[in-house]
Amino acid sequence: MGAKVRMYSTAVCPYCNMAERLLKSKGIEDIEKIRVDLEPEQRVLMMEKTGRRTVPQIYIGDTHVGGFDDLSALDREGRLDALLQGA
C-alpha cells in the first residue's frame, strides 16, 4: 500500500498544490491534509515539529521530507519512489 502521506497546508498555497500534483503523479491518492489556516494550533505544532514556518510541510511515513522543493529534489534524485513505497 505504501507509506502514509501527511501534508500541512493552507487553502491558497501554490506549492501545496504542486506537491499534491507530484504525489498524485506517483499514484498517491490518499493525502492527509492538515489545514493550518483553519486550525492555528496545528501551525504551532507544525513549527515545533519541523522548525519551519512555511507550508507545505510534508511527511511520508515518519520521515519529514520538508516542502515542495525538498519533495521535488527527492524525486529528481530518484529517492522519492522508495520512500513512498515505505522502503
Entry keywords:
about 90 residues; alpha+beta; Glutaredoxin; globular
Report on the structure:
With 87 residues, the protein is α+β, with helices and mostly antiparallel strands. Helix content is 43%, strand content 21%. The protein has a four-stranded mixed sheet, sandwiched between helices. The protein is globular and about 35 Å long. The chain starts with a strand and ends with a helix.
* Global outline: globular
CATH topology: Glutaredoxin
What gyration radius follows from the Cα positions, in whole Å?
A: 12 Å
Helix percentage range: 40-55%
End-to-end Cα distance: 11 Å
**Number of continuous helical runs:** 4
Category by helix and strand content: alpha+beta
CATH architecture: 3-Layer(aba) Sandwich
Q: Helix and strand succession?
A: EHEHEEHH
User: Mean of residue pLDDT?
Assistant: 95
Beta-strand portion reads: 15-25%
Overall structural domain count: 1
| Model regions low in confidence, pLDDT < 50 over at least 5 residues | none
What is the number of strand segments? 4
Largest sheet: 4 strands, mixed
Strand order of the largest sheet: 2-1-3-4
What is the name of the CATH class? Alpha Beta
CATH superfamily: Glutaredoxin
What topology emerges from the helices and strands here?
Elements: E1 5-9, H1 14-25, E2 31-35, H2 40-50, E3 57-60, E4 63-66, H3 68-76, H4 80-84
Parallel strand pairs: 1-2
Antiparallel strand pairs: 1-3, 3-4
